[in-house]
Recover the amino acids of this structure.
């Protein structure tokens, strides 16, 4: 059978499936008692008439999502490789240094490198070795797997049965951050100890990372079924949710400490990991940062998302911007004081960040506003805050996302976006090696992009 024939055959069986759903609509439509929230396993989604087609030929959704999730050659397939990472040389070496036994059995790793469903919520086909499977993001399918493709089933019906509304940027951010920053769930936190044992740094930006693992099309049909927040909204909400997450986990006694020390994961890595020299002519690597009123010698809280959020708030939530600025300064300062005060300040910062997430989620972003945010990320007060690698790397992802969103919405022409590309490549190069980050040089690259961006107005 040739490829065309296969897809025709598959198309047929899918139609047959759909009409079966129509005929016994009420039986299939009823939620199966007791299965809501059960993770049925990737094999349950992978049928050749479901999401396992060889090509994206589905009428409503692509139906080849499995192939994308498994793509061995790109970031899009990373989640299917997550479990295997634990048995790789690097995974084994991390586990050996930590003395936790085989990583593939260690709860402290599995919370992010496999579907974190609790044992009681695993169906017959569930396998830990599937890694970060479909239901790790979309939610346990027990309550909706039989009904979600029935004719007439709506997104709201599916969500009521346990499908996560990932089209909603707040819901999506909450899911991704559990693993791409850390969460309160079991095994969902990369400690400094893990990093010292060789775990890579965890970098994240919601819109960019969504694009990197995209296996869906936002077409007219999608928009009629779901919300389709643009890239700028997804970016802005993602930043607010990330600050909320960092401040909330820092305030959580279960995450905040490692023995007698604070948990170093929350702080800027290179504030501690710098070379020391006794040479009297040495120029210290540390630069004063106007937005972080902390004593010399104190490690600063990693502020990459606070910087972005501050740039977004000035344009898109001016009523909250001053409060956010004050809360983030107060939080940095409070860490040098006692723990109770730092926890109070973290709670305040988290609350303001949630208010910002709500504000961004409820509004649209016009062309002029996106250009204002882009300018704020690239220059002025914000540029002075790029004293550390993490903030610089986050800024480059922001510029990529904002320029990409302007181009995708047709708000700048493709030629203008293409002219920025070589500068953006230089910006990525400036943050390639964390140990070689040079704030001055980085600001120069950003200033050139700012100039090119102003020319687009
Ligand atoms: C909070 C979630 C989380 C936890 C807990 C976690 N990891 Fe990871 N791990 C990640 C993420 C996210 C990445 C990808 C980082 C990136 O590239 O942005 C990763 C990457 C890795 C990689 C590199 C994979 C590659 O393809 O190069 C290895 C190896 C690894 N983790 C092993 C471990 C081990 C061993 C443990 C337990 C000691 C562990 N991880 C715990 C989230 C986690
Ligand atoms: C890392 C998280 C993640 C994983 C893993 C994942 N998805 Fe998705 N998926 C998303 C996001 C985010 C979207 C876009 C938002 C939305 O429409 O839900 C999406 C969209 C989709 C869509 C399009 C929905 C529509 O209404 O058009 C389908 C179908 C889908 N995913 C199926 C799968 C299947 C099948 C798997 C496993 C093979 C899978 N996904 C794995 C996050 C994930
Ligand atoms: C259950 C944990 C988990 C969840 C939830 C999760 N991820 Fe991941 N993600 C990982 C791990 C672990 C890796 C690294 C896998 C590896 O490289 O072996 C990863 C890798 C990635 C990569 C590839 C990064 C790279 O540098 O190659 C992208 C992109 C990504 N995730 C996007 C997302 C997005 C977007 C969401 C939310 C819609 C999400 N992830 C939700 C655990 C998770
Ligand atoms: C408050 C200070 C501090 C911060 C912040 C900090 N570290 Fe460390 N780090 C240390 C100390 C102390 C050690 C132990 C050094 C030793 O054993 O010789 C260490 C060890 C390490 C090691 C092992 C180095 C080696 O040569 O064996 C790595 C890797 C590492 N840290 C990565 C990170 C990363 C990534 C971050 C940011 C997420 C970070 N650190 C943040 C203080 C810090």
């Amino acid at each position: 059978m040739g490829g065309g024939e296969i897809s025709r055959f598959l198309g047929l069986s899918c139609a047959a499936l759909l009409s079966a759903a129509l005929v016994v609509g009420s039986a299939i439509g009823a939620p199966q008692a007791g299965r809501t929230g059960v993770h049925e396993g990737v094999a349950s989604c992978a049928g050749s008439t479901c999401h396992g087609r060889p090509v994206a030929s589905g009428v409503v959704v692509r139906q080849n999502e499995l192939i994308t999730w498994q793509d061995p050659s790109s970031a899009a397939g990373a989640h299917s490789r997550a479990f295997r990472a634990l048995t790789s040389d690097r995974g084994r070496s991390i586990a050996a240094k930590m003395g936790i036994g085989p990583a593939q059995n260690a709860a402290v790793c599995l919370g992010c490198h496999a579907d974190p469903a609790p044992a009681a919520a695993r169906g017959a086909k569930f396998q830990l070795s599937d890694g970060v499977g479909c239901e790790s993001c979309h939610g346990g399918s027990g309550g909706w797997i039989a009904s979600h493709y029935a004719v007439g089933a709506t997104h709201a019906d599916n969500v009521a049965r346990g499908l996560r509304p990932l089209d909603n940027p707040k819901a999506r951010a909450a899911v991704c951050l559990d693993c791409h920053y850390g969460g309160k769930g079991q095994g969902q936190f990369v400690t400094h100890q893990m990093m010292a044992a060789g775990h890579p740094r965890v970098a994240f930006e919601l819109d960019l990372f969504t694009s990197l693992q995209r296996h869906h099309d936002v077409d007219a049909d999608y928009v009629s079924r779901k919300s389709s927040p643009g890239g700028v909204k997804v970016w802005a909400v993602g930043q607010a949710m990330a600050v909320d997450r960092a401040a909330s986990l820092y305030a959580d006694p279960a995450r905040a400490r490692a023995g007698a020390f604070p948990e170093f994961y929350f702080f800027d890595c290179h504030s501690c990991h710098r070379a020391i020299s006794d040479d009297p002519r040495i120029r210290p690597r540390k630069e004063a940062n106007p937005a972080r009123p902390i004593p010399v010698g104190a490690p600063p809280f990693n502020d990459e998302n606070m910087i972005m959020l501050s740039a977004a708030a000035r344009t898109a939530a001016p009523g909250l911007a001053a409060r956010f600025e004050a809360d983030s300064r107060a939080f940095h300062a409070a860490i040098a004081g006692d723990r109770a005060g730092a926890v109070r300040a973290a709670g305040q910062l988290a609350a303001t960040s949630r208010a910002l997430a709500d504000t961004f989620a409820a509004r649209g972003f016009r062309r002029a506003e996106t250009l204002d945010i882009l300018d704020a990320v690239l220059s002025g007060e914000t540029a002075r805050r790029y004293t550390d690698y993490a903030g610089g790397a986050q800024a480059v992802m922001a510029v990529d996302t904002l320029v990409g969103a302007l181009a995708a919405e047709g708000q700048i022409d493709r030629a203008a976006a293409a002219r920025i590309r070589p500068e953006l490549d230089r910006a990525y190069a400036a943050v390639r090696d964390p140990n070689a980050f040079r704030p001055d040089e980085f600001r120069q690259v950003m200033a050139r992009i700012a100039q090119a961006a102003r020319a687009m107005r």
